[in-house]
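Review box. Two proteins, two foldings.
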Amino acid sequence: MRLFSWRFIRVWQRNRDVFFRLWHSEAPGSIAEPIIILLAMGLGLGAYVGLVDGQKYIEFIAPGIIASYAMFSASFECTYGSFLRMEYQKTYDAIIATPLSVEDVIAGEISWGATRSLLTGTIILAIAAIFQLVHSPWALLIPVLAFLEGLMFASIAILFTSFAPAIYSFNYYFTLFITPMFFFSGVFFPLSSFPEIVQTLSWIAPLTPVVHLSRALISGEFHFDLLWALALIIGLTALFLSISLVTMRRRLTV
């Protein structure tokens, strides 16, 4: 494995400039959709649901919506977005013809995916605050958590992209990996409501510790197991980032 250099920031800047030119075409999916789900599920279904862990249902799901859509932002950016840049636009080939290395390109892609998570998480947090769903000043750390989450999911997405033979392969990634986490990581229901085997398997899903931390920051209630959740996020990020640097080098140079 080769390390990346500070030049990865140039890839990040390139993606940032493109995003600011096209942001209006991406806003409905990354901003409007989570707000609609938050209000529809929180107010609609919430009218038929009692208190969940001592909270109104909309208060319970708000942290999970923040975490899950931060996940979606990084995942879409580093699967479909990265694949298009790699295979169709040939952006990667053009960049590695400069002094930037493959590792710089991948680090820049991952850091941009994390930035997309930060933007999405921050916007939804602001909406939640407007609806008075935030009850702790610790929620100011949500953007930091969203960025860390973005690093993790961007690294996982880039790893899958390095093996994807065609753009249609991402249907498997989202259907069999991302979507199940959306429903079984404590976003809409407490993990305690699932059978014990499902509760155990839920902690294998990378989204679960993020939802756990997000809910703690918004409520201001902290427990010792949050340290385990944070360690799990950092460990998975380091693991998948390291592997993706190797697999993408093979994909782009062999």
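Next protein.
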Amino acid sequence: MIERQIEIPSQDGRITTFITHPERGGPHPVLLFYMDAPGIREELRDMARRLAAVGYYVVLPNLYHRSNVLELGPIPQDPASDERKQLFERVFALMASIDIAKVMADTDALLAFVDADPAASKGPLGTVGYCMSGRYAISAAARYPDRVAAAASIYGTQLMTDQPDSPHLAARRARAEFYIACAEIDHYVPLETVAPLRASLQEAGVAAEVELYPAVEHGFAFPQRAAFNKEAAERHWERLFALYRRRLTP
């Protein structure tokens, strides 16, 4: 496998980006992997490696580059600890420092880079976003309807808002197939919001599956989080691999 961490120029500075893909057999279909709120860490790099191991060119950008923040450090497991509270105060401030428009500008820069790399396919690409970045994975599909063929949101937040850039509206402009995984126990995405999201996408004729994962919490796919659930995590991997195989494999 090829791995590298590079600086990709953008309109708002340089984006530190982890890229991994198979050494041979390319060019490989591109996957844009948008990080969750706690940011870049080895846990996410390992997830990128798992995607790359089955044949993808995976791009994991640091979305907090405007704040000159790369890694925030490990997440304390004790939810009542002062260290965890302090970390998440910082996380929430960083989350508020970016939005759909800024991340789409980053996406423009990322695609300009991968399009110049012979190891990356110029054909259909996929996206995936966890937590705060589910909205970005969906929005990228709307921004690049002729390019993004598969988009996944894993316990994504703020997918249905009253703003004109709401992801549930953006999805109507896309041509991608969407997979949206929701946790039954989710403080950030209340259970009562899942059915309206599913109904809205169905009524608009969007090719989307909204799947509820019963009895698991927000964060279930992350091995280093207290909410990790192995069975649910493996199901989400199966669903991602199936989605990308359907839409990105020639």
